[in-house]
Design goal:
Layout: E1 3-7, E2 13-17, E3 37-38, H1 52-56, H2 66-69, H3 80-90
Antiparallel strand pairs: 1-2, 1-3
């Protein structure tokens, strides 16, 4: 059974251990004033995990820029294998 917190018009806070199907109290347990209202608190949410950010808050299309990663060669720069072949041919 959950614990509910209520607030009366005078500002008193009190907790009540009750079922979800039970009716809310009609008056404050401290001063007897009514009606009372349920106090709701925000829930703490922690986003953890290595893949959470990329799957839920994607960066657009998901394609990486190869120039930033160094994955592809640039047009003005020859490939490494071409450099090795030129050195072998000169020697």
């Amino acid at each position: 059974m959950p614990i509910y917190e209520y607030r009366c018009p005078n500002g008193h806070l009190f907790e009540r251990f009750q079922r979800m199907s039970d009716p809310p109290p009609e008056a404050c347990e401290v001063c007897g004033e009514g009606p009372v209202e349920v106090v709701l608190y925000p829930v703490a949410v922690h986003f953890k995990g290595s893949g959470f950010y990329t799957t839920d808050y994607g960066r657009g299309s998901g394609k990486k820029d190869a120039a930033k990663d160094g994955g592809e060669k640039k047009d003005d720069e020859p490939a490494k294998t071409e450099k090795v072949e030129k050195k072998a041919a000169e020697a």
